[in-house]
Amino acid sequence: MRNSLSALFLFFIFLVIYYSGSFTKIPFADCVGFVLDAEKGKFMTTATATTHFLYINTVILIKNITGLNGIEASRLLVVFSGAATVSVIYLTAKSITKTEWASLTAAFVFGFSFSFWRNAEIVEVYTYNTLWVSLFFFSIIKSFIENKKQYIVLAGLFLGISLWVHIQNILLIPAFLLFLFYFKDDKKYSYPSLLVFGLLFASLFILNISQGLPFKSPYSSDQGNWVEESFQKTFLQYVKDFLQSFAYLIYNFNIFTFFGVMGALFLYKSNRKMFFVFLAGSLCVYGFSTFYAVSDNYVFFLPFNIIFALSVGYGLSHPKYAALKKMSWVCLLIPLGYFLSYKTVFQTETGKALHNFKKYKGGLDYYMLPWMNDNVGILEFTIDKKEAPEPIKWMTLSAVEYIKLMKSKGYTEEEIKKL
Predict the structure, then answer these.
(1) Longest dimension (CA), the chain
(2) Around Cβ 317, how many Cβ atoms within 10 Å?
(3) Rounded to 5°, angle at Cα 143 from 88 and 111
C-alpha cells in the first residue's frame, strides 16, 4: 500500500512539473512532423524506423476521444507517460533495494535527468517509449528478486510492444534472450514469453510486407543513411563521440553518477545473473547511442539511463551509504544545477558563440535548460522566412505542410505563429 501511495505521489509531482514546463510553441527537431501526423488524424498503417506506429496512433486515438487538437493530444500523452515512467522507476528500484529513501531518490534523479526531462516537455516519442522499456526492466527485476514467474511473460510482452513504439529497442534483445536463458528451466513461462515477443516482433514485418514495403523496412528509413554513416567516421571522431557520451552521463546524473557506478559493482557481487542481463542491455544501447551518426544522439541513451538510474538507487541502498539518507534531499537541487551550469557557460566566449549560432531555436536555453515554456517555435520561424546557419530543411518542410493544413481550417498566420 505504501509503495502505491509513493508511486502515486511521484506521478502527480512530475505531472505538474512536466506540464508546467511544457513547450509553449511547437519546438524544432521532429516535433512538428509528429504534430502534423496527429492533426491529420489518419492512423499510421506502416511500422518503419521513423513512423513510430504505436506512438502516433495512440496520439490520434487520444485526439479522437478527447476532441483535443494534435498539439494538446501529443502533450497529454508525452507528459502522462513521462510522469508514469518516474513512478515505474520508483517501484522497480523499491523492488530491488527494499529501501524507501534510496528508491525515491533514484526516481527524482531520473525524473530530473536532463535528457528525460527535456523529452517530457516537447512533442517526441521518447517518453512514451521509455514507459514501455521501464515496464520491461520492472518485469525483469520482479522475476529475479521476487521470483514472480508471471513477470517472465510480461517481460516479453512489454519488450515486444516497445518495438512498435521505437525500433531502437531491438538493442535490448540480447539482454532479453540472456534473461530467458537464466529462466530456461521455467518452460511454462519462458517459452510463452519468447512466443509473445516473437509474434509481436514478426508482426512488424508482416504488416509492412502486406503493404508492399521491403523486408528491412521496420528497421530502415528512406530519410537518411545514419547507420552506414556511423561506420564511416575517423578514429578521432569516435574518440570525440565517446567523450561526448560521458559528458551526457555526467550532465544527466551529476554527483549521483558515482552511486550509479557503485550500484553496478554491488549488483555484480550480489546477483551476477541480473548484473549480466543489465550489462548486455547497457553495452548494446550505450555503444549504439555513442556512435550513431545523428546530431541529437543524446535521446538514444534513455533506455541506458533507466538502467543507470536503477543502479543509482541500488548503490545508495548499500549499508555503507546509510548515513546519506539525511542528505537525500540534495536531489531536489538538480534543477538549480542546470541553471547554474547555464549561467556559467553563458559567461564564456565559447558559450556565447554557441548561443549566437543556435539562437534561431533558443541558443543555450535549448541545449542546457530542460524546461521548454516560452520557447522559440518552428512555425513562427518558418512563417517569418527566417534563415538558420545550418541545414534544417527537413524540419521546415513539415512546418510548411502543417501551416497549410491549419490555414485550411481557418487559422490566420498570426494565430499559427502562437502554436
Answers:
(1) 65
(2) 25
(3) 15
How would you class 2 by CB atoms within 10 Å of its CB: exposed for 0-12, middle for 13-18, buried for 19 or more?
A: exposed
Q: Which residue has the cell 483535443?
A: 68
pLDDT in tens, 209-228: 998 888 888 887 666 555 66
Query: CA-to-CA distance for 201 and 204, rounded, in angstroms?
Result: 6
At 40, list the grid cell.
491529420
Lookup: cell for 160: 515486444
DSSP assignment string, 187-207: HHHHHHHHHHHHHHHHHHHHH
Between CA 92 and CA 26 the distance in angstroms is 33
Look at the block and give the residue holding cell 512555425: 379
Question: pLDDT per residue over 282-338, tens digit each?
Answer: 999 998 888 876 767 888 899 999 999 999 999 999 999 988 999 999 999 999 999
What pTM, to 2 d.p., does this model score? Answer: 0.95
The Cα–Cα gap between 24 and 203 comes to 38
Q: Are 312 and 94 in contact (CB under 8 A)?
A: no
| Amino acid (one-letter) located at 353 | A
Handedness of CA 121, 127, 128, 129 (dihedral sign): positive
Whether the CB-CB separation of 172 and 285 falls below 8 Å is answered with yes
Cα distance from N-terminal residue to C-terminal residue, the chain: 42
Half-sphere exposure at residue 166, Cβ-oriented, CA atoms within 13 angstroms: 20
Which residues are CB-contacts of 246 (< 8 A; sequence separation ≥ 6)? none
Residues making up the chain, counted from first to last: 419
Rg of the chain's alpha carbons, rounded to an integer?
21
